[in-house]
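EI: anyone free to look at a 171-residue chain?
SC: sure, send it
EI:
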Amino acid sequence: MNTPTLAIVIPCYNEELCIKTTVDRLLEVMSELENKDKISSESYIYLVDDGSTDNTWQIIEELHNFNKRVKGLKFIKNYGNQKALIAGYENVCGLGCDCAVSIDADLQDDINSNPEPSICSSDNSILFAVKKCKRVRMLQEFIDLINFLFHIRASVDNSFFLSGDVLEERS
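SC: here you go
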């Protein structure tokens, strides 16, 4: 059985105080998933420095030099979290992965709440999980943006999971 290659995309802006701890914790989780044959040993963390003015990029370089499973991209200026996420997803597709998830650099979200990589497949499907919230209108606007940007048909079911089939590949 082939295990999927997982890419974890992390947008970073002035995260020098937390990025090392975050990467260390995520590498632990990845190791646990590997030991359970949930992900491939080729899985990696992809950090996108969104024009930080602190030492975030230098720390990313140090982490990469210590562990090649940590990769990074540096923006020359701050473009915003969403552009950093999009750039991260586009780049991990180029580097190679079977599935990708994103998480905040400060581990504000529970790192154990991401969908199991076993639900990922190579049939050009997109699965996006969001927290349940009262802001359904905001969620619908986000879904509309995803539909527009990625040329998919997506909807939300009762468990607040967004799924859709890719209509065309982006070049």
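EI: The CA atoms of residues 44 and 68 lie 8 Å apart.
SC: 👍
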